[in-house]
Amino acid sequence: MMQLNEEEYQMMIKRCLRCSICKWIPQVQIKSQKYATACPAIDLYNFHPYSGGGKIILALTLEMDRIKPSEELRDIVYKCTECGNCAIACKFLNTLEPLEIIMRLREKLVDAGYGPMPKQEAYIQAVKKHNNPYNEPHENRIEWLPDDIQIDPNAKVLYYVGCTSSYRRKEMAIAAARIMNEAGVPFNILSDEEYCCGSPILRVGEINTFRQVLNKNLDVIESKEIETVIFSCAGCYDTFKVDYPLYRDYEFKVLHTVEFFSELLEAGRLKLTKEIPLKVTYHDPCHLGRNAERYEQWDGDEVQIMPLISINIPPKPKKTGKGGIYEPPRSILKKIPGLTFVEMERIREYAYCCGAGGGVKSAFPEMAVNTAKLRIEEAEDTGAEIIVSACPFCSTNLQDGINSRGSKLKYFDISELLMMALGLEPEKLKQILGEAA
Amino acid sequence: MLQKQVLEQFQKIVGPENVDDGEVMTNAYSYNWCMEFVNSMEGKEPLPFSSIPKAVLLPSNVEEVQQIVRICNKYNIQFKAQSTGLGPWNQPSSDNCVILDLRRMNKIIKIDERNLFAVVEPYVSGAQLQAETMKVGLMVHMPGAGPQVSPLASATSMNGPGFTSPHTGHSARNVLGVEWVLPDGEILKLGSTGLKNNSDWYIGDGPGPSLRGIMRGWAGAKSGIGVFTKVAFKLFPYPCSTKFKLSGISPNYEFEIPDYMKLYVIDCKSYNHLEKVFLKIEEEEISFICSHLSSYGLGAIFSNSIESLLDKIPIVGMKVPLVVLIAARTKREFEYKQKVMSKIMIDFKLENVIGSKYNPNSLFYAEALRSNLGLHGFIATGGFQSSKGQCDTVKVCLKTTKMSIPLKKKYIKRGVIGNDFGEGVWITSYESGHYFHIESPTMFDQTDEKSVKGMAENMEENHQFDLIKHLGAPFFVEGDKMHDLFGPEMMNYHIWLRKIKKAFDPNGIADSGFYISAK
Ligand SMILES: Cc1cc2nc3c(=O)[nH]c(=O)nc-3n(C[C@H](O)[C@H](O)[C@H](O)COP(=O)(O)OP(=O)(O)OC[C@H]3O[C@@H](n4cnc5c(N)ncnc54)[C@H](O)[C@@H]3O)c2cc1C
Prior knowledge:
The structure holds two protein chains of two kinds. By secondary structure, chain A is of the alpha/beta class. Helix content of chain A is 44%, strand content 9%. Chain A contains 19 helices and ten strands. The N and C termini of chain A lie far apart (50 Å). Chain B is built from 19 helices and 19 strands. Chain B has four domains: 4-101, Uridine Diphospho-n-acetylenolpyruvylglucosamine Reductase, domain 2 (2-Layer Sandwich), CATH 3.30.43.10; 108-237, Uridine Diphospho-n-acetylenolpyruvylglucosamine Reductase, domain 3 (2-Layer Sandwich); 258-468, FAD-linked oxidases, C-terminal domain (Vanillyl-alcohol Oxidase, Chain A, domain 3), CATH 3.40.462; 478-519. In chain B, helix 3 crosses helix 17. The longest helix of chain B has 20 residues, at 394-413. Helix content of chain B is 34%, strand content 18%. Classes of the chains: A alpha/beta, B alpha+beta. Flavin-adenine dinucleotide binds at residues 80-87, 89-90, 102, 122, 143-145, 149-150, 152-154, 156-162, 222-223, 227-228, 374-375, 377, 514 of chain B.
């Protein structure tokens, strides 16, 4: 589908059936009572307006002037990780777009002077000032880069590191870079010309600022004759892949490291030599999974075939998560010698969120960590010793969940595990095998 | 908003984070599906909102419910309980009402695999319970509303037909022991749950006169007679292998259809013929699903969008369709059921279009096993509701169907309801064909005022029609006005219902907007 326009928004907010489907993973996928639910917000806060459908009702009551913009409303609307699981469930049969509605509702709260949350406003200011939401000095952006990594200023492949990997999850950036070196892939980085991708700004409804950072990034990349941009951050990847084209077209190709590394493995350019005889489960980041599906243009017609019944010719494409990146990370893990791969119950397009997205980690840290604890429990129930994912945000939050739950699980980014299997981290591998024993 | 002292007492009971009387929360809880035409029927503006509740509370156990109800009695505030909260029946009928959202009461108390029953709290969904019962080879009955709703609500407070009814019965008849907070705060346990020694949930009656009829009767009290906090109901053998394997991405899943399932879609051509076929199939006790739907309804259960409905022409063109799904656990059982079906097909000169003219996506079988077919009713206009709702012999159900066609056509012609050629009904059977139910799902557009008002008129006229033509009591005989209309024609049951209400709820604290008031 195309991004929701105002007319569609006004129509859709009148159509919630209040059926509660949005609170659950697709009904036919429910495998147990414990892991049947889809939405962290309603799971934690229980009142109906926290659900996807509940927020559609809030949008309607606001539009009809039954309620006024307020802090009470803002707090409910922003206690949502925008993971989009509600939208997958709803669109099993329905045509509503709960996630799009939530995003637009946030924009409306911003316009009314009630959004975003104060902590989110603070990180937006940090982006404006330092090009990253962590208030870190811009010049430190490449501090993560070890001396022995080969960068090729003329490469057609660009590794876009992202703020979180640059400042907070440096191990991810290092792993991505080392693996590319190992495969002999020449790549460049933007160094101090790299700016926040704008994802955390967009998700909280600050569209104007988002436009500015988007343009800044695209201007730089387009000035460099880049053919492919590689991301290890699912959030940056989703923003470039799905959101940027809504505002400005670009020509280069975007790939997440899991796609790229999986291709390199298939092509035999990476050789997995070390055994990792451990049980591993994989968490699908929302930004890499269901939400990493591009909007499709639809220029069709709505044709009334009889009173009250209209059809779209051709049918309007629905974003249902089909464009998500699910197989490549699984294929990487399954290729690691000795590794036993186990799945959680909620996976792929209906994976449960880690709890960090949509500005929640900064504005509602307790909600973020409580959600992560639920996800970690699900991972524990698989019997896994290690949980991996492919997003620095999930990384931070799931790690917080592990600590807060006192879990024995270990978290690694998938590229770290890959490095060990490539024999690039013998000490680390020895250590985790020792701990497991 | 609540008075400060009342709010504080509620906060003490459920914790401050579980009660909210703010503008945002209470307004959001005043919305529900179909509220717009209910308002229209009551002569109000056709908006999807009811009265605004004074507050919303989230109790977590029976004691908290009991204390809330006592406070309500003390301060003369009404309450409305809701499980998953789908539909206008969940809405307060006055602005002196609090909503008890029972979401936090979500435990499966037990699954008694040997004695074939489960005990659950209000917010266990059908799909959750089904997932757990499948692990022991059993299944649960779910109403047509879908697997996301509460089997407790259906068993205690609503009606409860479902697509798998030939196999899993009717919520109204599946209910066993019940834990019930009466409108004055007393706890009543029905049947064997109330025994002093060795109490258990296996039966809902006695000793003495059964209170199950008082608790729910035909269509449930819709929170008008207290709050049900635990309920036991029957479980049924899962009809085939419980291996449930899906691949692909929602909603385009591929399902590995278990061995020993076969679908028949048959055009019976006339209602007279359908009657005979229906009775014969049910007498043989072989079906997992056995439903008559209009040709539109038939197309809908095989489609996940209005556009995909249009390529179901071979089946959408049928005159009087019947859908039969047989399922078995063993090869012998399957062969037997198929043989019986074959004989019926020959004897009644029927043809199965499945396999010859049409093959549904494999997902249809998954949705059938998980009771997800009813939700397909929404795909055309987004709004629908059923008029009618009788349970009777198949003859009466078909008489209702035939007689109602001109009435429905009148509204179709006005362009206020969707066109199903007036034939849009759903009929299914229970207990080997001892009785059937008919309802008339009707599509309307909830965003179009003309359609909403037309739908309301259509409902009203159907009620009158059913009354005059003696076609039984529809589902939606609820509220004083409707009971007063139907009661005098039906042994004055409404007088008795009022006596019950008065005895159980002397202060009129359980909101009776969709039940009956003591008056
Ligand atoms: C598409 C569709 C198809 C439908 N098809 C069918 C059908 O085939 N058969 C059928 O029977 N119904 C059908 N319905 C109606 C449906 O059954 C009910 O909406 C549903 O069963 C209620 O489940 P719930 O969890 O939503 O209960 P709720 O909506 O939460 O409650 C239903 C009623 O029971 C009361 N209630 C709920 N819990 C309690 C409690 N613990 N104590 C006291 N009162 C309580 C509520 O106040 C309300 O009046 C259909 C609805 C839809 C939308």
